[in-house]
Amino acid sequence: MRRRTPARNPKDFNNIHDIQGRVGHVANRMVGIESFWRKTAIWVTAGSFVALIFLTLDSMSAITAGSKRVPAYSVINHRIDYVFDEKRNFQVPVIGVEEPLFGKKLTEAEAEALVSHGKLTTQAKNCMNCHTLLGNGAYYAPDLTKAWLDPSWGTKEVREQEMVDFLMNPQDRLHNAVGRRMPNLGITEAEARATVAFLKWMSSIDTNGFPYNFKPIDQSDPPPAEAPAVNGSRFNSKEADMATLGKLDSANLNGGQKLAVKYFTVALALFGAQILFGLLARHSVPEARFSLRRARFQRQPHGAHQRPGGVAAVRLHRLGVLDAGGRIGHPGGRAQARQPDLLDIHPGGGRGSWWSTC
Amino acid sequence: MVVYLLIQIGPGDHSSIWLINEGREYIEAPRWADIGIVVCVLTSSTTSPPPSPRALHRRRRVLVLDLIALFGLYLAGMFYTPNISVDQYWWWWVIHLWVEATWEVLVGCLMAYGLMLTLGVRRKIVETWLYIEVALMFGSGILASATTISGSARRNTGSPSVASSPRWNRSRWWRWWCTRCSIPEPTR
Predict the structure, then answer these.
(1) What are phi and psi of A17, to 5 degrees?
(2) Which of A88, A95, A354, B53 has the fewest CB neighbours in a 10 Å radius?
């Protein structure tokens, strides 16, 4: 509990005992503050943890495979599209007519086994080292969330085989407009087919519109008159950029602008937090503020006020790290030799000096 | 190091995850290394038990509690599921609560001890600041995972969100929140 000692006039600080009394007073105040912060730490941690548990239960029920937003694995038997939803104001996956992967309809168990094999492959080959999946991972290679719907695969008829061929032999193909190439990871055909199944299933997850402004491959039933060029990637489509230029809201800022806004917000928040915290500290320990200002000009124990390095140098001297002059000690050497002419052996000063009180 | 050279060589089955790497960003370490980490942490947190809770200094109490959290939270990343949404959900737990919270508190405890040793700062003062740090670190760590999960990961893994007014519909609100709370991601 907080123990109070009477406030004293700062002018009364004449000798070390006054200082020590004052420091002791600050320490007593700190005892009260300590118990306050201990309780705060416990309550903040416990409160946040309880909130996190509730969020976890809520999220788990929502992201189980087979739920509304994360479809069952047998969804790979169907066409998956990604169309704009006026009500939700972004693109959402739409499960369409039956369109089995590689022309073979799978049961739920078979589909799960295939998707699982694909996911194991993405983990074993460490796809996340270059790609992002659901926006998570490294930013060297394209995001794979909607890779199944990437128009770079040409037409929907050749897409599956294109993907398998690419996964098995990616090294000699230009993957996108950036000019980066994927290395050959020794993926077998079975692994490649499973990976395609995993990518198809992942593209059916409702990601609340991520990625935005995505142009999916044409999957309409009458095949398109001319197939889009395989190398023509979405990354260099100026038309798409120009089309979104009209709408000016925060979602359409470019990457640099978004970063600038974000960092400015964070900096502002940190600045504000710092000020608030400073005010809090100042409010809680007025004595600490006082002693910080005054202590430098007051005489300190062991002549610390006369030494380079102050109290810290004294402590380090006692530990044998520094010599009496605040220099790095040379064990058995220079520091030893300089012992006799220490400043604090006979500082003089006479009456009024701190030494006269000893 | 040897295992690191073998990354991306293993076949697409469980043996790669157990022996070579898990292929999940930041927690790529194979399962055998995971078990090693948990065993080490568990050993260090249980081999130095206090003679009695009363005798234990609070700084060390914080340290032991932190080591228990260090053991428990790492388990959140040690399982396999074909569902990438669930996978990434628990991945965020490990990233925010294990990497960003408990390890920083551990460093804080060591710093506190170092301050007491070298500068002779009073224990009460050090402990007060340690508690403030724990409150900020665990509070912000847990809050950060809550916002990331309900912000960017919620967006990406497809969890539903809270409904609000018609003009500010929930998608707009989450998108506003996500653009401010998620890590920078490339726009396509």
Answers:
(1) -70, -40
(2) B53
